[in-house]
Model the fold of this input.
Amino acid sequence: MKKISFRDDVLPMKNRLYRLALRITLNPAEAEDAVQDTLIKVWEHREEWERIESIEAYAHTICRNIALDMAGKAGHGNVQLNEELRVKNEESSMFNVQCSMFNEFEQKERLSLVKKIMDTLPEVQRSIMELRDIEGKTYQEIGNILKLSESQVKVYLHRARTSIRQQVDKIEKYGL
Amino acid sequence: MDYKYIEQLLERYWACETSLKEEQILRTFFQQEDVPAHLMAYKAVFDVQQEQAEASLGEDFDARMLQIVDEQSTVNSQPLTGWRRRLRPLYQAAGLVALILTIGMAAQQSFDGSEKTEQTQYAEADSMESPVQELAPLPEQQAALAAEQLDSLNLTR
Done:
C-alpha cells in the first residue's frame, strides 16, 4: 500500500472538505474551522492511516460530522443568516421589477434564487449534491462517506434534484 | 440548433439516471453563453454548481496547518525526550568513567616514565614533597647493599 503523507495526500483535500463543510454550515468561517479540525483529527490518527481503506472517505466523514456539530451548535445563527439572505433577496427582487429587461441581471437573480433553494434543502441532500455535482463522486463513494447505501444516496439525490427543478420551474412560471 | 439531446440528458439528470460523464456534458453545455431561453433557468442551477466549485482555502491555510502539525509532532515526540531523560544518569556515568580512565592513563603514563629511576618514582608518589626526594637515595643504598649481599652469597656457593 502507498505511504500516505500529510503534505501530499491529506492537505490537498482541503478544498473538497471545505466545500462540503460550507454546504453544511453555510458559513465560510465555520467551514474553514471545520476543515482545520478535520485535518488535525486525521493527523492525530496517523498511526491508523495504513489500515484505513480510503483516507479520502475517512476525512470526508470526519469533516461532515464536525461541520454538523458546528451547524447544530450555531443552528440559530444559520437561521439568521438565511433570514438576512431572504430579506436581501426580497429587496433585490423589488429592484429587479424595475430592471428585469436586463437579461444579465435576471440571470444573476436566478442564480441567487437557486442558491437560496439549495441552501434550504435538508443537510443530507445538500451534502450529497455537493459530493455528486461538484466533486463528481460515484454513488458508492458518497455512500461510504455518509454511511448510507448506494440506493439511499440515490433517493436523497433524487429528492434534492426534484425539489430544485420544481422550484426553478415555479419561479419561471410565476416570475421571480 | 437541436437541443433534444441536451433536453433528454437534462430529463435523465433530474431522474438521477445520468452517469458522471453525462453530467459533465451538461455542465459543459451550460457553461456557454448562448443557452436557449427555455433552458436559461436551468443554466442557473449549473452556474451555481460552478460557483460553489470555486470555493477554496488559501495558501495561508496550508502554512497554518503545517505549523499546527509540526507542533503536534514535537508534542508527540516527548516520550522520546523522556526516554533520553531516563538515560541521562547513564550518560553521566559514562562521562565519569571516561574521566577516571583519562586520569588513570595519564597517571600510568607518568608512572611508566618514572620507573627508570626510583628517585622520580618516589617523587611522583608523594607529589612534589621535597623531603621525600632527599630521602630517596636511602632505599637505593639499601637495595645496592642487598644486591651485594646476594652476590656474595652466590659467590660462596
The radius of gyration of chain B is 49 Å. The mean pLDDT of chain B is 78.
